[in-house]
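Hi P.,

Sorry for the delay on this. The queue was packed all week, but I finally got your sequence through. Input first:
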Amino acid sequence: MRSPRSGTLRDRLVTLCVLGGLFVSVTAVYVVVVLGGGLLIGHTDSPQIGLSVLATAIVALGFEPVRALLQAHARRRLRAGRAAPYDVLSGFTESLTAEEGGQEELPQRMARLLAEGTGASWAQVWLMVGDEPELTAVWPPADGFRGPGLDVSGPGLRSLDVTLADERLGVLRVQERPDAPLSPVEERLFSGLAAQAGLVLRGARLRAELARRADDLVAMAEELQVSRRRVVDAHDSERRRLERDIHDGAQQHLVALVVNLSLAQTLATASPDRARTVLVEQQAAVDAAITTLVELSRGIYPQVLAEDGVAAAVRAVVSTSAVPVEVVDRGLGRHPEALETALYFCCVEAVQNAVKHAGARRVLVELAGVGDRVRVLVSDDGHGFDVTRVLAAGGLGTLRDRVDSVGGELTVSTNDAGGTDVAASLPVRAAVGVG
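Then the structure:
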């Protein structure tokens, strides 16, 4: 195994190689310019001053380029072809402004430079998105390889937080090779990359958050379209129901009333007594027509709801139920019309579902006001149903639309008795301007 001080020794070897190369190059320049030039002009007994000055100038001008070339070559040779840590750090700094590949690929380039610069088995770049860590890049990009999770630790596994203005943006991780732990120089490279990565990860996090919000907006748009289709279908269904109820109920009563009144008018001259009998009979027909219209209007907005509130309206509508229904008012109070309408129809539909489909023997309706919200719970002791499957199939759509229309939340679950709990929580202030 390599000693932790092997990196320092390697740097010293690089320095010695560079000094040796510089000595050789200076000597070569002196030999070629001073001795070779003196031989050409016939001055071999002593160095010519002009040639010495020229050789010194050549050495001075070429010293830095030759030194950099020798240093890079020595580092590559001693590091088995890997770039020097400082070259890696410089290359990453330049890549921050490069247009090649786009800003989206910066985390992947960071992982590659980190792995290659430190000689690690692999490198990871983690990004904090919504306070949750998310693996955004790994190198080498082997098929299906992601490396261990952020909560996993082990021998040779190193991690450094990436921060910017005291905000934790992500984590850089490397796995040392078993026979080659990080040298002090490589550790400084690791720290340097973590220090420079703040802007990169902040940009990556913004792109990730925008992508999530875009996905959420697409899902909301699709849900809105589905909800609108349900509303249109519900309106069409309600319109057909009203047409049917009017035709089969009130219209038949009114048509019969018109026919009988015409008969009484005809009999008024020929048989006044019979005409009076027909007119008396029409009182019951008028009462029947009025009763039909009142019952029909209850499906739109019951008068008792406007006068006495939700609890009284629900008690009135369930009074003729074949299944006992208990309505408990726990301080609901009075609220805007739109909110009370939504509460009322939620209760009525949930009770009807329990009576028709759940085989319930008892239904409990609880109404309460809690802070700035109102809550309703309809609980039955029936046989229940598969909540997930029904909701996935679009069931309870009308009930959900009622709640959504005032910004509320609807939950459906199975209770301890094996029946169903339908709970709705509606904000009071959100409903003030509705309707």
